[in-house]
Write a structure and sequence with these properties.
The complex is a heterodimer of chains A (573) and B (142). Chain A is 45% helix and 8% strand. Chain A has helices spanning 19-25, 76-85, 88-96, 99-107, 113-120, 125-133, 137-147, 166-179, 194-205, 220-229, 244-249, 254-266, 279-282, 291-305, 319-323, 327-340, 357-368, 399-409, 420-440, 448-456, 468-480, 485-494, 498-513, 550-556, and strands spanning 56-59, 62-66, 69-70, 156-158, 183-186, 213-216, 234-239, 270-274, 309-311, 344-346, 377-380, 522-523, 529-530. With 142 residues, chain B is mostly helical. The chains are: A alpha/beta (573), B mainly alpha (142).
Chain lengths: 573, 142
């Protein structure tokens, strides 16, 4: 949603301008779009005069009034939240606290995460908004540091190809795995390519260290189908919205989504919902409410549905909050509120946001500095042009910068620098594994020349084009023959990729245990479940909580070029 | 079957600490899911599914960790394991706005209750029927 080059309003206006003005006019930030606040249509970040005032009334254990609306007048979102997300037993007591006091609890290290959640369990959307309005950006980060559900931060990558080339996706997924991503996600230009690309991602991600969970963002029913087959490992693009008309336009209700949440869990598949500030404005029905107020309603729908987590932080609508005053503060606040109601938060930074490198970095810091469950809910592991989610705020070109920022500030964004030789080795192995599986399953062949090109490529522009029609027939075959994740395990084992087969089977085995259904679950490099249950955030002020140390900190110290202390003539390996 | 009482601090991850409790829908132990068994065909795709018992164990873990709603979702999921993939998708589609009449949703709730013993799911569908009626997003009928 970044604006196209806007006509320079000062050029040719017959007025004499300074050279400095010209320099500033030419800065990339002036290609971004900015607009005045316009509360009537919801173009306001977190402070609309039409936002409701917080209130709650409970009768006989039922919430009968919420944020100034009587139960008889509740829209379906109000009712879902009042009946399922808010604890009626504690609501009146929690709502009696002032918004400022609750905001202070979020920031105060002496108040534990559990104590905060005991209060947020009883808060209405308008009250949570009032709490957020008390917090500046540093306080939001302080809050996130404590409220993030999983103690150890992690990151998620996008693995897509502008040509939907499965080989590229396999190579980039393998590289993503060795670089540290805990989840990788793909989507398609041509949707019919999905089975092959999702397979490629599933196989590539389990080469080398293994462990990352995969998903393929598609329309709900198809996404569930691929998940049920074991070709993907989790699901994320289950969108919810903050106004009733927009929800209906999306052809869903909180109840249909809650049913879908159960459907994924019933097949042992991890799932999170998706929402974000700006979506209701973009879909033309914000009812005059601020973006953050509507997003808080989405967060509470996710909580009420019993889904373990949420991808938020504006996501595909980042241009909307990005254009208004305090918009990026509101985006950080929505992540914080998701974490504060005890949901996993995959915190955005996943779409092209700004032409300005400074602004891109500033937009990242409120998540990267405190750490979130997934700092990016889609770091592009390819060049920007290959990202079929409409780019990302961070791309493969940014790896070295990202790793340097981790090292500079000693903050953990989940990634690490890896030597080129190791990267080429896993890319090669992933490509060969995919070639072998395609051959084993009688899918369109992958040549050695294609592999050589893909292993050494940066993006799809350098690849040998695939025969798309043949690939699409192959993709249909995968669906018709009902190829499952287990078939991939067999194919890998039969073709000499036993280590990859073992990793993939370990991931599939997790759906029998259900351990990944708990909040904020990932698999470690040793393929062990790590979630908010066995890795609960224990931040309690200075000297406590997660801090990069030991082997992880040593790993983070490595960059592409670091001069040796013992011999300044050489660089550290 | 009575469920064992779990202590999340000790028993989670179940796949690490309580493998004795984990079975496939066909009654095999999680330890039987090996590469050899996959290759020989002893383990099929139908084995790689979670059982209602395991979902209720995980619900217990969620609830003991203070996550009431997540626990409730896992208990609904436990009921849903008995329903085929295609029927799950059909019911999901029936719950979309303006997709079903009230009578159709009530029939689904009845089916859930009688055929699948899925009382929690039936309750969810009946709630939807009520709200959809009040908010005028039921199908207008044939």
């Amino acid at each position: 949603m970044t604006a196209e080059a806007i006509q320079n309003p000062k050029a040719g206006d017959g007025v004499r301008h300074s050279l400095r003005t010209q320099v500033l006019e030419n800065r990339p930030v002036n290609l971004d779009g900015f607009v005045e606040e316009w509360p009537e249509v919801g173009m306001v970040a977190m402070d609309s005069p039409f936002d409701p005032q917080p209130s709650v009334r409970v009768e006989n254990g039922v919430i009968v009034e919420m944020d100034g609306v009587e139960r008889a007048d509740f829209d379906f979102i109000d009712q879902f939240i009042a009946d399922k997300a808010i604890s009626a037993e504690v609501a009146e007591q929690a709502m009696a606290l002032s918004a400022q006091d609750i905001a202070r609890m979020l920031v105060d290290p002496a108040v534990t995460r559990q104590e905060v959640i005991a209060v947020t369990n009883g808060l209405t959307p308008a009250k949570l908004l009032a709490v957020a309005k008390n917090l500046n950006i540093v306080e939001i980060m302080m809050g996130m540091q404590k409220m993030r559900a999983r103690r150890t931060p992690a990151n998620q990558g996008h693995c897509t190809s502008a040509r939907d080339n499965p080989l590229q996706v396999a190579c980039d997924a393998a590289e993503a795995s060795i670089r540290g991503f805990s989840e990788v996600e793909t989507t398609l230009g041509v949707v019919r390519y999905a089975p092959l690309v999702a397979m490629a991602q599933q196989i590539g991600s389990q080469v080398g260290t293994g462990g990352p969970l995969t998903q393929c963002a598609l329309e709900e029913a198809t996404e569930l189908d691929l998940g049920m087959r074991g070709i993907t490992g989790y699901a994320e693009t289950i969108s919810v919205y903050g106004t009733e008309p927009v929800f209906v336009d999306g052809d869903d209700t909180p109840w249909s989504k809650a049913f879908l949440a159960g459907a994924y869990a019933s097949r042992g598949i991890k799932m999170r919902f998706t929402s974000g500030t700006g979506s209701e404005v973009q879909m033309g029905n914000a009812q005059g409410k601020s973006m953050l107020y509507l997003e808080i309603r989405c967060i509470l729908i996710a909580k009420g549905a019993g889904v373990q987590g949420l991808q938020n932080g504006s996501i595909s609508c980042i241009g909307v909050p990005g254009a208004v005053p305090a918009g990026i503060r509101a985006v950080a606040a929505e992540n914080l509120i998701a974490s504060s109601v005890d949901l996993e938060c995959a915190s955005g930074n996943d779409q092209s946001f700004s032409h300005s490198p400074m602004r891109r970095t500033a937009r990242l810091m409120p998540q990267m500095m405190p750490g979130t469950d997934f700092v990016c809910s889609g770091y592009s592991t390819m060049p920007n042009y290959d990202d079929m989610f409409a780019g990302s705020n961070l791309d493969s070109d940014d790896y070295d910068d990202f790793n340097t920022i981790q090292r500079d500030l000693q903050i953990d964004g989940g990634l690490r620098h890896v030597k080129e030789s190791e990267i080429l080795a896993v890319r090669t192995r992933a490509a060969q594994a995919l070639q072998a599986v395609f051959r084993y399953l009688d899918l369109p062949p992958i040549t050695d020349a294609e592999i050589d090109t893909a292993v050494y490529a940066d993006g799809s522009k350098e690849l040998i084009p695939r025969d798309v029609l043949e690939d699409l027939k192959g993709a249909q075959q995968v669906m018709d023959r009902n190829v499952t994740g287990l078939d991939l395990v067999k194919a890998l084992e039969a073709t000499g990729f036993s280590d990859v087969a073992e990793n993939l089977l370990a991931v599939l085995r997790q759906r029998v245990s259900g351990d990944l259904l708990q909040t904020s679950a990932i698999l470690t490099k040793d393929l062990q479940p790590l979630s908010a249950v066995n890795d609960a955030n224990d931040y309690a002020g200075p000297g406590t909580g997660y801090r990069p140390s030991g082997a992880r900190w040593e790993e983070m110290k490595k960059l592409r070029h670091v001069t040796s202390a013992s011999n300044p003539e050489v660089e550290v390996e | 079957m009575t469920q064992p009482t779990l202590d999340p601090a000790v028993d989670y991850p179940l796949s690490v600490h309580r493998r004795d409790l984990l079975f496939t829908p066909t009654g095999k132990s999680i330890d039987d899911i090996t590469i050899e068994a996959v290759v020989s065909g002893d383990i099929q795709a139908t084995d790689l599914r979670i059982t209602p018992d395991t979902l209720r164990l995980q619900a217990q873990v969620s609830e003991k960790a203070g996550r009431k709603q997540l626990g409730a979702n896992l208990r609904r999921a436990a009921e849903m394991t008995a329903i085929s993939d295609s029927r799950v998708l059909e019911i999901y589609n029936a719950l979309r706005p303006n997709a079903s009449t009230k009578a159709e949703l009530e029939a689904i709730a009845e089916e859930l209750r009688t055929q699948y013993d899925a009382n929690l799911l039936a309750e969810l569908v009946l709630e939807a029927a009520d709200v959809y009626e009040r908010r005028d997003i039921l199908a207008t009928g044939e």
